[in-house]
Write a structure and sequence with these properties.
The complex is a heterodimer of chains A (349) and B (797). Chain A is α+β, with helices and mostly antiparallel strands and 349 residues long. Chain A has eleven helices and eleven strands. In chain A, helix 2 runs antiparallel to helix 4, helix 3 (36-42) runs antiparallel to helix 4 (49-86) and helix 5 packs across helix 10. Chain A is rod-shaped, with a radius of gyration of 41 Å. Chain B has 21 helices and 42 strands. In chain B, helix 1 packs across helix 4 (171-180), helix 6 runs antiparallel to helix 9 and helix 10 (408-415) crosses helix 12. The chains are: A alpha+beta (349), B alpha+beta (797).
Chain lengths: 349, 797
């Protein structure tokens, strides 16, 4: 018996196998139950102990080597077969996909989220009130009596339906009625913001009959105008992401705050674009003031003990400023091109 | 409120320039809206047309030789008033022309060189006049600056006056405020009272006792006046503010209105009766006013009348008939006090915005009644001559007296700044408040007559800080306390916003874009969706915005249509916002709309979007809120917004959680371009807020043991609710039955009209062991028996 000869023979047959089936046949022919190598191993039993030892180990080595050769060949054949199959599976990778437009969140959503986060970090929780308000909440409780010229500061929408006092419901002209609703329901200290929809009958590129505001209210025993100033400057720094922010507080008038102020931030035009923070032009950002003691009394809050401040920010306005948007009407047009250009992807939102 | 620098200087002695004054005004709360300063116009100069000839290639153009005092230029000019010797205003090459907003460029016009431009008033933004080039009448030297030649050296301020500051609706009031800020010194009024009041007025006053708005009226009669053009100084003042001079008497009243903020009125005494009444108008009484419009009055309107004849609407506007003209010989001057509320109400009802109304409704200085009378008398007498009567009055002129007890501490507590009492007192005195009694803690403040807006101690604080300067308020940021953070964590509104954000993210990641549409409905939408009529907006801007919406679907269909027109084929949008069920009830919902077209792409294939795709999307949305769609009760929707056979409603108890389906074909008739529209309305506010806002609330038990699957087919009654079947099967063994997945539905004639064949796969898995065959068989048997019994279902092989 010549192990070498068998090895040469089987090696050749393995090499010549061109398919897994052929190789399988070779495997059976040598290592199968009646295979040549198996037979040789069986014949060992007829040999002497000495011969058994020497031939046995050689035969075993042969068996292992052949087994490995077959395994390797199997692997080669498998790779070859898959590779040849893959050649038929080539797709036209250049076939362009249909056009798609990114789905995004509205810029106002992003602003709502930031406003809630920034004021949240200062301790303000969110409150809300209805869009359709009574005259009491929108005006008289806020120290805006009927026939007062201050009513004409705001062009009010009225609803046909009338409230319990017989006055027509109004679409809230500001988020300030939430101040009243909150103070009537909650004892001080009160620290809330109330973002939401507001309405005035006005329509052009900077005015929309519907727009958004956020109201802020902080009432305790000592919240003062310095706190108001600091809070709003801090908000603007964070919202506009400008650390070096030049601001101006100037006296103004709102019937529900006294003293009242408006806050402007400085800007300059750089390459035809508004750049916020520095410069010698001013942009009006918000109205604010110390809550008028009359309003506190209207809400059964003792103005000899409690005081505090309130503010109102136009959310569409600060959104437009932050992102350089110019026409408020496009906010509410439902134009998906506009959303895709100006909205926020899920990662940015 | 508009006034010129020189007019302000009539009342204020100051060395500050226009810009400095502008800044001070804003810091006083008298916000500078614009400052028109023409100093940059000094680059434009006076020039003379030396000679001109017709342009050879253009009929309308002339070639002019223009002398600006230094050079001779050739200028092509198209104006029709070109003539030799004309003195005009000249702009050279490179200069910016404000009226046309272009930089002038030397160049050829129809083949002839032009080296500059002779300007019209419009090109200088001085008026709309573009009839011809400016023609100077006075003999200015060539090269004189346009500012001098056109007398533009008087800057114009325009300031915003808040409703509380009626006292600053006159130039004098503004000057007074500026002087308190330290910008200058208030000058005393510069006129002489008329000492010789010769005779009793032949016209007398009566204030009817009918609750009309007149508190007090005082008048003088001027005999034999000569009314014609007012003097140049007066005309120039009015023109500087864009007002048209009319005649001396009218100009004087307009002047005093602006100068002192005191409206007054002059009647032509020969056109009115001898006894004038202040009374309420009769219903439907009419008057032709000075603005040439006829107004119909109601019983709440106060009029000035002689008998049945309304002569003027009190505090608002005079009548046309009794007005003064150039021919007026005798004049009756009226200075009155009217109730601000009534004036406001009448003005609003009639829609008249006059200078008088504007001032009356903000409340006038009571002490200015007599001063206005004296000043007007002085000017009328000086300008128009004649004789002046004694006063004739009616009603009562109360003294304005308002005292406030004020503690100096209050300022410190409110503003967060310690300001010495002496400094506080000085500011108040500068503002002409009187300090009656004072000690180191408090004082009694007497408010000046023109400050009827200062009512309480908080108003005193405002006055002090206004003058002291808001820029001096020290800022501090009160940080969040633990209590406040706790409140935020527990606030249901905060939780709601968190959930809304979660929903939005889910929607966006599913390819749906967010829109925000108006809270309104058009008339068309209201009719089609049969909304509540009580939600009509009484004063809507347009038909498109005349109701409050009770659904967003119509708005979204309109958006979809708009986007379709922009070329979008597949439109997927959502909005989270309010809908209004009545004036007392609104809720925030999610509404989404999907409009798809058949996919014709043979490579990128996708299944057609249908009701089941929508159900799947609804399920995803509900999952994102920590709920499982299958736990709700499902029923067909009865809403007429949806296709009755392809829409569903999900309920939790009696609360509607979601409604979704194909938009009703009748509605789609209105949007014929859109095909295949589906909508979901998710009433997330009806879900318990604590559950939906939680971060990790779903608990799925994970098992390492082998699972087994088994399919079951049953023949159910056609309307059998499969949500119930699913819940029932799952409930048969909560520990072992992991999933019940429905995957086939088969309807066929041979099953009969009343049944449906349904197949579902049950996944069985234990968390304790690998189940044995006999356990499984027992469970399978149990499912078959229980389901067929419970639902009267036939088992299919």
């Amino acid at each position: 018996m010549d192990i070498k000869k068998v090895l040469n023979e089987v090696t050749k047959e393995i090499e010549q196998s061109s398919s897994q089936q052929e190789l399988q046949n070779v495997k059976v022919a040598y290592l199968g139950k009646k295979g040549k190598i198996t037979e040789l191993l069986k014949s060992l039993k007829d040999l002497s102990l000495e011969e058994k030892k020497s031939s046995g180990s050689k035969l075993n080595l042969l068996r292992i080597e052949v087994d490995n050769l077959i395994k390797n060949k199997f692997n080669d054949l498998k790779i070859k077969e898959i590779n040849s199959k893959l050649k038929n599976e080539y797709l036209d990778i250049s076939f362009p996909p249909p056009n798609s437009i990114a789905s995004k969140a509205h810029p106002i959503s992003k602003t709502f989220d930031e406003v809630i986060t920034i004021f949240g970090s200062m301790g303000y929780s969110v409150a809300e009130g209805p869009d359709i308000e009574t005259d009491f909440f929108n005006f008289s409780a806020l120290n805006i009596p009927e026939n007062h010229p201050a009513r004409e500061m705001q062009d009010t929408f009225y609803i046909d339906d009338k409230d319990k006092e017989g006055k027509p419901y109004v679409l809230r002209t500001h988020t300030s009625p939430v101040q009243i609703r909150t103070l009537l329901n909650q004892k001080p200290p009160v620290k809330i913001i109330a973002p939401g929809r507001t309405y005035r009958c006005d329509s052009d590129s900077t005015h929309s009959p519907m727009f958004h505001q956020v109201e802020g209210l902080f009432i305790n025993e000592n919240a003062n105008m310095g706190d108001l100033k600091g809070t709003l400057i801090e908000f603007c720094k964070q919202f506009f992401n400008v650390q070096n922010l030049k601001v101006r507080f100037r006296p103004s008038y709102f019937p529900f705050t006294e003293p009242s102020a408006e806050m402007d931030i400085a800007y300059e035009i750089v390459n035809n674009k508004i750049q916020l923070g520095q410069g010698d032009r001013w942009l009006e950002i918000l109205g604010c003031g110390m809550v008028n003691p009359i309003v506190l009394e209207n809400c059964n809050v003792d103005a000899n003990i409690y005081q505090g401040f309130a503010f109102g920010v136009g959310l569409d306005r600060i959104t437009m400023l932050k992102y350089g948007l110019t026409d408020i009407r496009s906010f509410f047009s439902g134009n998906l091109n506009w959303i895709a250009s100006n909205g926020f992807t899920i990662g940015d939102f | 409120m508009k006034f010129s620098y020189s007019w302000l200087c009539d009342h204020l002695e100051t060395d500050k320039n226009a810009n400095e004054i502008g800044e001070a005004l804003t810091n006083l709360g008298l916000e500078l809206e614009s400052l028109t300063d023409y100093s940059e116009y000094s680059k434009f100069v006076v020039a003379t047309i030396k000679d001109f000839r017709k342009h050879p290639n253009a009929d309308r153009l002339n070639i002019c030789k223009v002398d600006d005092g230094t050079n001779i230029y050739q200028v092509i000019c198209g104006a029709n008033n070109v003539k030799k010797g004309l003195k005009g205003i000249f702009a050279k090459d490179g200069m910016y022309i404000p009226g046309t907003k272009i930089n002038l460029k030397k160049g050829k016009i129809r083949g002839e060189i032009s080296e500059g431009m002779l300007l019209s008033e419009r090109e200088l933004n001085l008026s709309d006049d573009h009839e011809g080039i400016i023609e100077l009448l006075d003999d200015f030297q060539n090269g004189t600056s346009a500012v001098e030649a056109l007398k533009l050296n008087d800057p114009i301020f325009e300031i915003g006056i808040t409703p509380n500051r009626g006292d600053c609706l006159g130039v004098r009031g503004v000057a007074r405020d500026l002087s308190a800020k330290g910008v200058g010194k208030l000058k005393p009024m510069n006129f002489k009272k008329i000492n010789q009041l010769e005779f009793a007025s032949p016209i007398i006053w009566n204030i009817n006792n009918d609750n009309n708005s007149c508190e007090y009226v005082v008048s003088r009669y001027f005999k034999n006046v000569n009314n014609s053009k007012s003097p140049e100084w007066l005309q120039k003042k009015l023109i500087s503010l864009g007002l048209r001079p009319i005649n001396a008497l009218v100009d004087i009243t307009n002047y005093i209105t602006i100068d002192l903020g005191r409206p007054l009125h002059v009647f032509d005494a020969d056109k009115i009766g001898k006894k004038l009444d202040m009374r309420l108008a009769n219903a439907n009484e009419r008057i032709l006013a000075l603005d040439n419009k006829e107004y119909t009055l109601d019983k709440n309107t106060t009029v000035i009348a002689d008998g049945d004849n309304a002569l003027a609407i009190a505090g608002i506007i005079g009548g046309d008939y009794s007005g003064c003209t150039d021919d007026t010989k005798n004049v009756f001057l009226e200075v009155a006090l009217f109730n601000p509320n009534s004036v406001a109400q009448t003005g609003r009802t009639l829609g008249i915005n006059s200078d008088a109304r504007y001032r009356f409704e903000r409340g006038l200085d009571k002490n200015m009644v007599i001063e206005g009378l004296e000043y007007a008398s002085y000017l009328i007498n000086k300008i128009c001559g004649g004789l002046v009567s004694k006063n004739i009055e009616a009603g009562k002129l109360d003294n304005f007296e308002h005292k406030i007890n004020y503690k100096f501490d209050y300022f410190n507590k409110t503003i967060g700044l310690v300001l010495d009492p002496q400094k506080q007192i000085k500011i108040l005195k500068d503002l002409k408040f009187q300090i009656n009694k004072s000690n180191e803690k408090e004082c009694e403040v007497l408010v000046p007559s023109w400050r009827n807006d200062v009512k309480n101690k908080i108003d005193i604080v405002e006055e002090i800080i206004r003058i002291y300067g808001y820029e001096n308020i020290k800022q501090s940021v009160p940080s969040a306390s633990i209590d406040e953070i706790d409140k935020i964590d527990n606030s249901s509104t905060n939780k709601k916003y968190k959930s809304i954000k979660k929903l939005k993210k889910t929607l966006i990641s599913n390819g749906i874009s967010e829109v925000i549409t108006f809270s309104f409905h058009s008339i068309r939408a209201q009719e089609i969706l049969k909304g509540d009529k009580s939600l009509k907006i009484s004063n809507a801007i347009s038909d498109d915005q005349s109701y409050m919406r009770n659904s967003m679907i119509f708005n979204h269909l309109e958006s979809a249509e708009l986007n379709f027109k922009k070329g979008f084929k597949n439109i997927q949008l959502f909005e989270i916002g309010p809908i209004y069920n009545s004036s007392q009830s609104q809720e925030n919902i999610l509404s989404l709309l999907i409009s798809t077209e058949e996919n014709t792409n043979s490579i990128y294939k996708s299944e057609e979007f249908n009701f089941y795709s929508l159900t799947e999307l609804t399920s995803i949305l509900i999952s994102s809120l920590n709920f499982d769609i299958k736990q709700f009760n499902i029923s067909r929707s009865t809403s007429n917004t949806y296709h009755p056979g392809q829409s569903a409603e999900l309920f939790m108890g009696k609360k509607l959680i979601a409604r979704y389906g194909k938009v009703h074909p009748l509605i789609m008739e209105e949007f014929s371009k859109l095909k295949n529209c589906y909508a979901i309305e998710l009433f997330f506010e009806n879900l318990p807020i604590d559950s939906i806002s939680k971060a990790n609330s779903i608990n799925i038990q994970d098992s390492q043991f082998q699972f087994s699957e088994k399919d079951f087919s049953f023949l159910f009654e056609k309307e059998q609710n499969l949500f119930e079947v699913q819940r029932y099967v799952k409930g048969l063994d909560k520990n072992l039955i992991k999933n019940v997945d429905f995957f086939d539905l088969y309807l066929s004639k041979d099953l009969g009209d009343r049944s449906k064949s349904v197949t579902f796969r049950v996944t069985i898995q234990s968390i304790e062991k690998t189940l044995e065959e006999k356990d499984l068989e027992q469970l399978h048997k149990n499912i078959l028996e229980k389901v067929s019994n419970k639902f009267k279902a036939k088992i299919r092989s």
